[in-house]
């Protein structure tokens, strides 16, 4: 390629499929992380979900520690830690420790959604008053203070430290699917990631809010926007459509409140809700390499994204790794150890 391509990253959901155990799912996630590291993806994030039969990633810091140790150069982080579920000091201690173990390779992406249903959120937070997440902005500021942000006065940092003798701090990123976190990220001068893979029609509007609200900081001199996308690549459009069906059925189960593991390809092919899943509104990018690259470049141009973060949802790990391989080659990523063209 004649120019350096836009950075690509990976959102890895650690999905559990039919016939798979939690151990299988985490081994698959490790394989995906190693592939992303080898292929030249910039970062890999894992999410926080609770009480869901299709998702093994319940504790991002534990999984991040494993994945960072299993890879060499890729940045590993959370997409995200649902901050209202946790005490800010606990999160700060966890990620300061991760940063000390893997300097310069840790992202702390944080969101304000529960990552689960209200009953599970209550079990996590232990206080009905905490379900509103009204303290989220202050909790974010407290986190920044605990990591040494000189702008923060008062709060937890007056009495506590995330770690005794930090040299570097994790990169803090706000996540969102609305304008609330977009505006907060801008006001705090932080990078912002919009969850376009949720299917929201408000991606462009939220990013405009972010850029309009942006105040330069020591974290970011100018706005930095990451846009996530469901993207599954196969050798042909037909193969990609077939492989995408398990993920489509999983999304249908989430939207209808009937949670279950990701079905196998064989189950998906004869599933009674196959037609409903295939016809469900979606902004997923599915197809052969040329088609997917063209659609992702169009998304980047429409949103002005500084980075795209892709997630591939299907049953088998070999297919997820193959998707990353095909996309990396077609996009022009430089594999580990090679200079960009």
Summarize the SSE layout with pairings.
Elements: E1 7-12, H1 22-39, E2 43-46, H2 60-70, E3 75-82, H3 88-101, E4 106-111, H4 118-125, H5 136-146, E5 171-176, H6 179-188, E6 192-194, H7 203-213, E7 225-233, H8 237-255, H9 265-269, H10 274-278, E8 285-287, H11 289-303, E9 307-311, H12 317-331
Parallel strand pairs: 1-2, 1-9, 2-3, 3-4, 4-5, 5-6, 6-7, 7-8, 7-9
> What is the number of E strands?
9
The second-level CATH architecture is Alpha-Beta Barrel
Topology-level CATH name:
TIM Barrel
Uncertain segments: none
Gyration radius, in Å? 19 Å
Protein name: LLM class flavin-dependent oxidoreductase
Family: To bacterial alkanal monooxygenase alpha and beta chains.
GO molecular function: oxidoreductase activity, acting on paired donors, with incorporation or reduction of molecular oxygen
GO cellular component, one term: cytosol
Task: Describe the overall structure.
- Pfam families: Bac_luciferase.
- GO terms for molecular function: oxidoreductase activity, acting on paired donors, with incorporation or reduction of molecular oxygen.
- The protein is α/β, with parallel strands linked by helices and 341 residues long.
- It has one domain (7-125, 136-331): TIM Barrel (Alpha-Beta Barrel), CATH 3.20.20.30.
- 42% of the residues lie in helices and 15% in strands.
- The chain has helices at 22-39, 60-70, 88-101, 118-125, 136-146, 179-188, 203-213, 237-255, 265-269, 274-278, 289-303, 317-331, and strands at 7-12, 43-46, 75-82, 106-111, 171-176, 192-194, 225-233, 285-287, 307-311.
- An eight-stranded parallel barrel has the order 1-2-3-4-5-6-7-9, surrounded by eight helices.
- α11 (289-303) packs across α12.
- The longest helix has 19 residues, at 237-255.
- The protein is globular, with a radius of gyration of 19 Å.
- The termini are close together.
- The relative contact order is 0.15.
């Amino acid at each position: 390629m004649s120019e350096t391509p836009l950075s690509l990253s990976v959102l890895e959901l650690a999905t559990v499929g039919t016939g798979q155990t939690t151990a299988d799912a985490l081994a698959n996630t490790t394989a995906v992380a190693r592939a992303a590291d080898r292929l030249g993806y910039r970062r890999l994030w894992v999410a926080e979900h609770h009480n869901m039969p299709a998702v093994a990633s319940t504790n991002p810091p534990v999984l991040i520690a494993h994945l960072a140790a299993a890879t060499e150069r890729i940045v590993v982080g959370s997409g995200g830690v649902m901050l209202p579920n946790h005490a800010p000091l606990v999160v700060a201690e966890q990620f300061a420790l991760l940063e000390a173990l893997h300097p310069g390779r840790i992202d702390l992406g944080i969101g304000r959604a529960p990552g689960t249903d209200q009953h599970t959120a209550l079990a996590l937070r232990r206080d009905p008053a905490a379900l509103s997440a009204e303290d989220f902005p202050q909790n974010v500021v407290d986190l920044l203070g605990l990591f040494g942000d000189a702008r923060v006065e008062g709060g937890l940092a007056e009495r506590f430290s995330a770690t005794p003798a930090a040299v570097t701090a994790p990169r803090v990123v706000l996540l969102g699917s609305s304008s609330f976190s977009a505006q907060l990220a801008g006001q705090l001068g932080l990078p912002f990631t919009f969850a376009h893979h949720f299917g929201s029609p408000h991606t462009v509007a939220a990013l405009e809010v972010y850029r309009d609200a942006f105040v330069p900081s020591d974290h970011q001199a100018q706005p930095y926007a990451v846009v996530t996308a469901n993207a599954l690549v196969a050798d042909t459009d037909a193969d990609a459509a077939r492989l995408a069906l398990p993920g489509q059925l999983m999304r249908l189960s989430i939207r209808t409140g009937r949670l279950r593991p990701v079905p196998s390809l064989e189950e998906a092919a004869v599933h009674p809700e196959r037609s409903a899943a295939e016809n469900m509104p979606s902004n997923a990018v599915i197809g052969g390499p040329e088609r997917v690259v063209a659609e992702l470049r169009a998304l980047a141009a429409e949103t002005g994204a500084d980075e795209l973060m892709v997630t591939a949802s299907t049953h088998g790990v070999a297919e997820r790794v193959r998707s990353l391989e095909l996309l990396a080659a077609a996009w022009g990523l430089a594999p580990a150890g090679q200079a960009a063209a």
